[in-house]
Design goal:
The chain contains 16 helices and 16 strands. The chain is of the alpha+beta class and 419 residues long. Bound molecules: histidyl-adenosine monophosphate.
């Protein structure tokens, strides 16, 4: 029996890979423009990190983690997200003590044992950034703009920025009490999951997808009615800065996000083009996470974009369009004597930065020409006995069919000129 890829995980290859390369180069250039530094952490972390950081009552920690005992008997987890690992690393290396304002970005695979469907995988990739050390609203907006700019440069437009504020810890504590009281009074109308959450994570009931829950939520107390002056001022400043930056957004008072560490600003980039998996990215402020992980009072804010979803959205918006492939030169050996010499010419072209391909299967000229077409070569360079003797080559422009004989030393010039 043949062995297949694990359910919910994907091989990424063929034409799809060019989407990833383009995305990865945009992640680097946008991060550079915002002066963020790349940070790489291991794939495996102590299970305790996510229990304490993300929250035991969240879906991620409660039912989606790949957790196992390693051979030494320690409980380890394949990272389901990168904010807790980044905070762990900043504390471990005393980074905040050395630099009161840290700007970090990351990119890589995450693991969540969710039910796979289009846009939802068990191994998926995130690009994200964290602005660490500032409690001010300009940091929130810098992070939102970095996420927005990434999606804009990648070329997806069918997105909505949904924005909310959860207020500070005191606001949430008072709100939680009122919400628990309200939900308990109507618990018979709630689905089983939501009924359980009344005690464990009542705010999550607010973004329940269940129809009956929604009508209960309609009548729930409003978080914003509990805001104190500092929570309102923070949220107003974020909105004002977004307004002047020209970034459109909608306020969604029900947006609470699925991770426990948030306070004040939370946001999500959503789309209607991907069915139920409508969140392309999300984030928010997490002023309490450092303290929760033993790192003292360090405010921070960040986001992550789901790379698979961003690519799927681009494909949905640009049906049939492939990202441009760089032009390739295909060296065709006419007869056997040129087979080895063209390897040297190919090497010369590659050193000049020209993408060059040769046939290593020793095929006929006809088969090599067919292969050149399949490779999408912009030029073929044909060399046979006659050309070998005269140190020339026949360069054919595959688009126009135009053909010229040139000295071998000039191949670079001819193919570069036409590119
Ligand atoms: P999150 O909302 O859990 O936030 O994930 C961010 C994005 O990752 C989602 O919007 C989605 O695009 C993508 N994503 C999540 N799960 C899957 C999946 N199973 N398959 C495909 N894509 C998925 C976080 O992870 C936070 N750490 C974000 C953050 C950074 N908050 C502050 N800093």
């Amino acid at each position: 029996m043949s062995i297949s890829v694990i359910r919910g995980m994907r091989d990424i290859f063929g034409p799809e890979i060019s989407h990833w390369h383009r995305a990865e180069s945009i992640f680097r250039s946008v991060s550079d423009d915002f002066a963020y530094q790349e940070f790489r952490t291991p794939m495996l972390e102590s299970t305790e990190l996510f229990k304490r950081g993300v929250g035991e009552e969240t879906d991620i920690v409660g039912k989606e983690m790949y957790t196992f005992e390693d051979r030494g008997g320690d409980s380890v987890t394949l990272r389901p997200e990168l904010t807790a690992p980044i905070v762990r690393a900043c504390i471990e290396h005393s980074l905040v003590r050395h630099n009161p304002s840290l700007r970090l970005w990351y990119y890589g695979p995450q693991f969540r044992y969710e039910r796979p469907q289009k846009g939802r995988y068990r191994q998926f990739h995130q690009f994200g950034a964290e602005c660490i050390g500032s409690a001010n609203p300009e940091a929130d907006v810098e992070i939102i703009l970095l996420a927005y700019e990434t999606l804009r440069r990648y070329g997806v437009s069918d997105i909505r920025l949904e924005l909310n504020s959860l207020g500070n810890a005191d606001v949430r504590r008072r709100y939680r009490e009122a919400l628990v009281e309200y939900l308990t009074s109507r618990q018979d109308e709630l689905c089983q999951d939501s009924r359980r959450r009344i005690q464990t994570n009542p705010l999550r009931v607010l973004d329940s997808k269940d129809e009956a829950d929604r009508s209960v939520v309609e009548g729930a107390p409003q978080l914003h009615d509990f805001f104190d002056e500092s929570s309102s001022a923070h949220f107003t400043a974020v909105r004002t800065l977004l307004d002047v930056s020209g970034v459109p957004y909608v306020i969604n008072p029900r947006l609470v996000r699925g991770l426990d560490y948030y306070n004040h600003t939370v946001f999500e980039f959503t789309t209607d083009a991907l069915g139920t998996q409508n969140a392309v990215g999300g984030g928010g402020r997490y002023d309490g996470l450092f303290a929760q992980l033993g790192g003292g009072d360090v405010p921070a804010v960040g986001f992550s974009i789901g790379v698979e979803r961003m690519i799927l959205l681009w494909q949905a918006e640009h049906a049939d369009q492939q990202p441009e492939q760089s032009a390739r030169v295909y060296l065709v050996s006419v007869g056997d004597d040129a087979r080895l010499p063209i390897q040297l010419i190919a090497l010369r072209l590659r050193r000049a930065g020209i993408h060059a391909v040769t046939d290593v299967l020793r095929r006929s000229v006809k088969a090599q020409m067919k292969d050149a077409n399949r490779e999408g070569a912009a030029f073929t360079v044909m060399i046979g006995d006659e050309e070998l003797a005269a140190s020339t080559a026949v360069v054919k422009n595959m688009l126009t069919g135009e053909q010229v004989t040139v000295p071998q030393a000039e191949i670079e010039t001819v193919v570069s000129f036409h590119e």
